[in-house]
Amino acid sequence: MRTRPYSEVDVFSEEPYRGNALAVVHDAGGLGDEEMQRFAAWTNLSETTFLLPPSSPEADYRVRIFTGSEELPFAGHPTLGSARAWLDAGGSPRANGTVMQECAAGLVPVRVEGESLAFEAPPITRYGPVDEPLLRRLAEVLGIRRVEILDASWLVNGPQWIGVRLASAREVLDLQPDPTKAGDLEIGVVGPYDAAGDAAYEVRAFVGGDPVWEDPVTGSLNAGLGQWLTDTAMATPPYTVSQGTVLGRRGRVRISRRDGKIWVGGTVTSCIEGTVRL
């Protein structure tokens, strides 16, 4: 064991401690897979990241991303949170105004705009309609009638997301998923707000388990939803998404489009800086 720099940051909220927390271990060289996984489970946060020297000459750093039970090739809020922690620790991007992150899914550009950061959405590797038996199962999991699902699509971009579109933000907020039917599904639900406000959509993210675990604010899901809603003419970037409302959070995800690419952004705040013995 040795002492390493350690950070915790709050991602996707303009109000500190109202977004999604991320633990970041800096200078993580020498740590094995089992050590990283054990520490990620111990933090009891949705994800923990480990910063390493890049293997690609184009990258500023390399990151490994762990949930409490597995390693992910890519995830959204860990991307922005890791970039903020790296910058706050003195990192200087090679490209002016853009951090180039290397992860298992490849290189991910992160734009720096003050306290706000935005990543370019990675390619969706499975994208398309959901078959009828699965649609019926999704409705059962979410506790709604099949007819209430207006549309659905696979949105796999690392996590195995399935996007589900409902008629309104109110319907999204009222969902009460049934954990006994979720299995290993990863479900993202979106619905529009009728009245003008700071957010155009409400989003909720459910990951199968017992009970169903709800993610406070989810970058990868919103990246997939941004592509899908734009492609189906249901949304026109830029727009803002609200997430985490039912959990007492105030997540705000900003979706924009540049040169045909979807970008996912939000405010990231450093909350804890110190050291950890690993």
TrEMBL record:
Active-site residues per Swiss-Prot or TrEMBL entry: 47
InterPro entries named in the record: Phenazine_PhzF-like
Molecular function GO labels: isomerase activity
Isomerase is among the record's keywords: yes
UniProt superkingdom: Bacteria
Pfam families given in the database record: PhzC-PhzF
Entry GO CC: cytoplasm
Keyword field: Isomerase
Matches recorded under PANTHER family: ANTISENSE-ENHANCING SEQUENCE 1, PHENAZINE BIOSYNTHESIS PROTEIN
NCBIfam families: PhzF_family (TIGR00654)
Protein name per Swiss-Prot or TrEMBL: PhzF family phenazine biosynthesis isomerase
